[in-house]
Amino acid sequence: MKKQFFLLAIIVVIVTGCGRDLSNVKTSLYGHWVDEASGIHYYISDGNYIRVDDEGAEDKLSYKVVEHDTVKNTIVIQENVENGAGDLKEFTFENDDREAVEVVTDTSSNGNISDYVKEVVKDITQEETVENWEYVDDKQKP
């Protein structure tokens, strides 16, 4: 009986230790995601992510969490925090399973662009892009 209990306890520890942490929106973002429209893969970890396009080219970016709201299931990050520039991305999880997320990128927030260039770009393009990502697995590197 003790052996069975011990075996059951080990199995419970292993099963609960696997998978991603859904206890808050920040850690729910960690893992491997794919954009439904473009097929671009994202591997997200604490403060960094790797974007892999359909040809296998990798971009490594850092980010900082600017705000998060567990009730609304949202998180906002600022990319490339080392040089003070980068886009703002707002992630809104579709539900508490957090396996699908809408990603709105605010390109007007990029600190490397002058105000004049921002106005010109604003006149000819949209300032926000919207993507829909699906969770793939818990890998944080390709």
From TrEMBL:
Protein known as: Lipoprotein
Organism listed in the record: Aquibacillus halophilus
